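Continuing the series of single-chain predictions for the mutant panel. This is the parent chain; the variants come on the following pages.
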Amino acid sequence: MTDVRAERAHAGGLLSMAFGAACYLFFLGTFLYMIGFVLDLPTLPQTIDHGGVDSPAYIAIAVNLTLLAIFALQHSIMARPAFKRAWTKIVPKHLERSVYVLAATTCVALLIWQWRPIADPVWSVSAPMARVALYALQAIGWGTVLLATFLINHFELFGLTQTFDALLGRSVTEQSFKTPSLYRYVRHPLYLGFVIAFWAAPDMSVGHLLFAIGGTGYILVGIFFEERDLIAHFGQKYIDYKRRVPMLLPFGKGGGR
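Parent structure:
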């Protein structure tokens, strides 16, 4: 009987690991496509300014704002501790992060698939060196996003560590407070990377501007709720960190409580 239970537990662990890996690969593929989507790569069938359904501007704006709102609501609600406590009564704790990654990535994929381009220009930089500089800055933004995830444990952030621990029979470890490298200069380098990538565009269309404003607005709102949760979890450690380190821009001082 003991051997049967052990075999079932091992099989369950393998299935969990496979599920976590599938969610991660789905995220990775969607994230890479998102980079091309924002860059407006002509080789892609759907980008921020090309492809998709041709709609009147007012319909395109309504659809795009709805898509951004769907992502924002999913991202915010499922990230809250109260939701996690309720959710892990249904979903095993070691799969909670993978399910979150799956849901968030699905919302991003939906946004890419159903995005309505509004290609009317807002600005267009013509100087070759300036265009190269903006593309380089955009690359720095995406690179900062990835680097920030690895600084705080990339594989834990996307659920792989949890499923691997479950396979080995280890309990899910509690998040520890640490401020490596970039986190010593800004509290949210990952979000800073997204903001840079959204705005460093040689060619800014109305649709891209809507995306950048919506994405940046969500980031600011998300930071408010995230920091409230971090203060509740880490207490004085995070309050001191918040006072000492700026939120997004690497100069000046941090904010108060």
